Amino acid sequence: xxxxxxxxxxxxxxxxxxxxxxxxxxxxxxxxxxxxxxxxxxxxxxxxxxxxxxxxxxxxxxxxxxxxxxxxxxxxxxxxxxxxxxxxxxxxxxxxx
Length: 97
What we know:
globular
């Protein structure tokens, strides 16, 4: 049986929550202002995968990215409670599976 990684969890959760049924950042960008729950998930995934987020149009996504852009190790920052509560909730829900 495969072990679910944090990155895999984010991809699965984004697909479930997004209206587009995808974790593609371009598609998420179009719905970020109406679907706030996918924003934190998408930015965590973008940070973990080193995705290019400069082209996003949504102000909500831009703000979320600004908070994470200087974080070198996202998972370590989450473990040490160095990020906002929104990201902490996502990380804690991963361990509740």
